Amino acid sequence: MPELPEVETTVRDLNQEVRNRTFVDVWTDFEKMIKSPGGFAEFKKNLRGKIILSVRRRGKNILFELTDGYTLLVHQKLTGHLLYGNWVYDGKSWISPAKGDLADPMNRYIHLVLSLDNKKQIALSDLRKFAKTGLWKTVDLFETKDIKELGPEPLDPGFSFEKFREAIGAKKGKIKQVLMDQSAVVGIGNIYSDEILWASRIHPARPVQSLGRKELKAIYENSLRILAEAVKLRGTTVISNTEEYRGIGGRRGKYQEKLNVYRLNGTPCPACGRKVERVKVNQRSWHFCSKCQT
Predict the structure, then answer these.
(1) Is 257 a catalytic residue?
(2) DSSP readout, 224-264?
(3) How does DSSP assign 115-139, residue by residue?
(4) Residue 207 among the catalytic residues
(5) Which of 44, 60, 246, 263 does the annotation list as catalytic?
(6) 229 carries an active-site annotation
(7) Which residues partner with 188 through β-bridges?
(8) pTM of the entire structure?
(9) 2 assigned to active site
């Protein structure tokens, strides 16, 4: 699933390309992804003619701020990623005439196309079709549970260690699960929680209440450092059959070259040489070094 660095990369790139553009048409072959009131018919009717004022991120949500007080939300979920370019519909699927990154096989699962006034399109490619989108009045959107209950943003300038400690300390459970709880701190998922905890030398199964101030400070500092570095490297593209993140031009991220434990089970820990372990908890894989992380 795209996490904070991947979504932030997408948002920054979209701001460069689509600000002040106008939506002129909408296509989908999967109306169930439209979660706003009125379904697809209302979504299409209200989106046409709206101008994109800016694109921003809240947690893992991409928010297009539009004219007339509307906001378009896209949550890419497990395998979704937004693309920007040109496609031609051949009656069965959307084909990119461009060669290169947009023609990558992982970019062909297009289920939503938003046409713009510059003859280009924003397309949502989503292999598993878990992504969701919708159009709301902005004041109503920020009262929905999905937005209202989100925790603080770890890359905000005002996100201090005390705010982090308060947010994490208010939760019970194992530290990896709490780090991924979007009502505690937003944007951290399976990839970066593994990497943050390895860097902090904290075992993912440690109960939050067992962590001292020094340990929490290490998690806080490594969270900020790793997330910022991953943004700089345009996110993580894990090569698999289902979870290959792409940027809006269809390109892969580069942070996978920096991974220490995530999906590296069976390989030597970069710090001590012991093999990285993998356990499955609630259908999630945890990767860690049992020697370094205590």
Answers:
(1) no
(2) HHHHHHHHHTT-----SSS-----TTS---SGGGG-SSTT-
(3) EETTS-EEEEEESS---EEEEEEHH
(4) no
(5) 60
(6) no
(7) none
(8) 0.96
(9) yes
